[in-house]
């Protein structure tokens, strides 16, 4: 039976740190040894080093890099068709808002969904994990902001770097503002897998899950918020909403 595709979100890291080496090797094996890194220009050199790590350290058979140099590239349907055929795609960014603006509503973003629909994996290192939800988490200096996300995971808002000061309050407020979404707090070292049906599993570390369906605001207080701290192996669900045709 063919494996169901899904999204792999992490709280931080990259292939050079080795902190997710086991998960990366597992996903690479499932992908038949083929991987593509999708990055912004600021990470072009880093992505070249990641290819070496995958080829020499993880046994990759084929590696590729797509450097997204502006929205025009994300609108290129030929490029999108090629990316959609990849069994494993990793996103990473040093320019979070730029990557979101370039990808949102484009054929390349649709290609990421196509990878998962075909049984593949779309993963993200650190900050890029915050782009997958209907609401995107954006780091602003020492604070946090939120914007419309890629909606690949239509029922979630994920906040990587959850160990940062103020992260819990920011995610709680974002989840309460859209109580149809599940909030996921991902500290560094944490990783979750969520498939296209919304079935999730914690793969590493501990992840905060916030549900605000019963929450209410009284002055500066947020009451009735449900918070679970899920350890590796725990299973959970996030809603799945279908966009209109």
Q: What report would you give on this structure?
A:
This protein is of the alpha/beta class and 245 residues long. The chain contains 7 helices and 16 strands. The strands form 4 sheets. An 8-stranded mixed β-sheet has the order 3-2-4-5-1-10-11-16, with helices on both faces. Strands 8-9-12-15 form a 4-stranded mixed β-sheet, with helices on one face. Helix 7 links the parallel strand 8 and strand 9. Helix 4 packs parallel to helix 6. It is globular and about 55 Å long.
In brief, what are we looking at here?
27% of the residues lie in helices and 33% in strands. It is of the alpha/beta class and 245 residues long. Strands 3-2-4-5-1-10-11-16 form an eight-stranded mixed beta sheet, with helices on both faces. Strands 8-9-12-15 form a four-stranded mixed beta sheet, with helices on one face. The chain has a two-stranded antiparallel sheet with strand order 6-7.
What's the SSE blueprint?
Elements: E1 6-10, H1 21-30, E2 34-39, H2 44-57, E3 62-67, H3 71-74, H4 77-84, E4 88-92, H5 96-103, H6 107-117, E5 121-124, E6 135-140, E7 143-148, E8 156-160, H7 167-177, E9 182-186, E10 191-195, E11 199-204, E12 206-211, E13 216-218, E14 221-223, E15 226-231, E16 235-237
Parallel strand pairs: 1-5, 2-3, 2-4, 4-5, 8-9
Antiparallel strand pairs: 1-10, 6-7, 9-12, 10-11, 11-16, 12-15, 13-14
Helix pairs in contact: 4-6
């Amino acid at each position: 039976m063919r494996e169901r595709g899904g999204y792999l979100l992490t709280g931080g890291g990259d292939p050079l740190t080795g902190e997710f080496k086991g998960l990366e090797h597992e996903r690479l094996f499932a992908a038949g040894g083929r991987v593509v890194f999708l990055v912004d220009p600021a990470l072009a050199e880093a992505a070249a080093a990641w290819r070496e790590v995958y080829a020499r350290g993880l046994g990759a058979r084929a590696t590729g890099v797509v450097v997204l140099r502006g929205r025009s590239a994300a609108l290129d349907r030929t490029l999108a068709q090629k990316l959609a055929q990849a069994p494993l795609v990793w996103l990473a960014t040093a320019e979070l808002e730029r990557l979101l603006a370039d990808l949102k509503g484009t054929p390349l973003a649709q290609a990421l969904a196509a990878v998962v629909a075909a049984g593949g994996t779309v993963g993200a290192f650190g900050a890029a994990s915050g782009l997958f939800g209907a609401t995107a988490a954006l780091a602003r200096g020492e604070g946090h902001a939120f914007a419309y996300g890629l909606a690949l995971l239509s029922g979630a808002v994920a906040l990587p770097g959850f160990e940062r000061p103020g992260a819990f309050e920011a995610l709680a407020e974002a989840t309460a503002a859209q109580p149809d979404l599940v909030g996921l707090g991902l500290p560094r070292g944490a990783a979750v897998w969520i498939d296209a049906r919304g079935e999730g599993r914690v793969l590493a570390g501990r992840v905060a899950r916030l549900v605000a369906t019963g929450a209410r605001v009284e002055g500066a207080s947020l009451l009735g918020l449900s918070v679970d701290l899920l350890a590796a192996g725990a299973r959970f669900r996030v809603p799945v909403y279908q966009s209109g045709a």
